[in-house]
Amino acid sequence: TDTHYVTEKNISTVLPGTMPGWPVKRDISNFNTAASFFKLNDDNIPYSSLPAAAMQSNFTAHMPDLPRGYYERIDSSNGTIKISMINLPLVDMYRKLLHAKALPATHMMAPGADANEFFMDEDRHLKAGWELQNTYCYELLMPAGTSLQRMQERMLADINFYSNTTAQVKDSMVNCLVIKDTMAIKDSCDSLVAATDSIAVRNIVYQLNRRYGSMPAIDATNGRAEMMLPFVPELLTNIPQLNKFLLPYGLAITTEPRKITLLLLTQTAPRTFFHQPKLYLK
Fold first, then answer.
1. Which 3 state secondary structure label does DSSP give 115?
2. Which of 88, 139, 159, 263 supports an S-S bond with 108, CB 3.0-4.6 Å?
3. How far apart are CA 199 and CA 202, in angstroms?
């Protein structure tokens, strides 16, 4: 359980000793990733109606108890390659296929869409409950000799089709929080290390970039990324106070337009049908 779930309200809920009915996550540790999600009942389907054995895909809602992840398997006897993405949110599927895994949450946008379907707000949702509604499973079976580019094109087309969503990676000018130097470094980094609860400048930038919908943060300091400062978690959600805190250390936060790489998601149609446990074959 993540620490942000340990709150006064949640503790009060469990103290009486009654079962709260919260979602429970149980991973099937021996899940066989080599097996397909579904097997067609060939005995009840006319041969002429069977899909091509070496090229098919399926997409489902969250599959309880399966460990999330990305898997690739080659079956040399059948001459096929199988790619599975299990219990991943759409944004993670797109980040994998568009080579944008390094982009933080502040560099991802879904203009005009319900952001809650793409990104989990830790202040509003329990992780297990959100994942039940907003993570999906995708599987692709293709000939083993298929090129990587062809498979990625097919996977992108499939996910666009199944999810009524499109995504692109694009460089854009947007307003950013920029941490800059205000004076020369007078002390070594080591002299600023607190006895307990310290944080590096680069980790302040990392934490600022974790919350979807916030302004992207950029480290524009000169050699201070590893400088250690006392860590006050409350300041990360209060930029004016964080700026005031940084000033004595020769740092300041400004708002400036910068060109950064963004992942833009566009919802092309409602996805209400997603929450039904249905199988889609293409």
1. helix
2. 263
3. 8
Amino acid identity, residue 282?
K
Residue at token pair 């959100």: 130
Helix (H, G, I), strand (E, B) or coil at 37: coil
The model carries a pTM of 0.76
Place of tokens 């039940």: 132
Taking the alpha carbons of 267, 272, 276, 279 in that order, is the dihedral positive or negative?
negative
Dist CA 84 CA 33 (whole Å): 8
Q: Of 95, 107, 71, 79, which is closest to residue 156 (Cα–Cα)? A: 95
pLDDT tens sequence across 23-77:
665 556 667 766 777 666 767 777 777 665 567 888 988 988 888 899 998 888 7
Query: Is 59 in contact with 138 (CB distance < 8 Å)?
Result: yes
Q: Are strands 56-61 and 136-143 parallel, antiparallel or unpaired?
A: antiparallel
Q: pLDDT of 126-175, one tens digit each?
A: 787 888 889 999 999 888 888 989 999 999 999 999 889 999 999 999 99
Asked whether the beta carbons of 37 and 63 are under 8 A apart, the reply is: yes
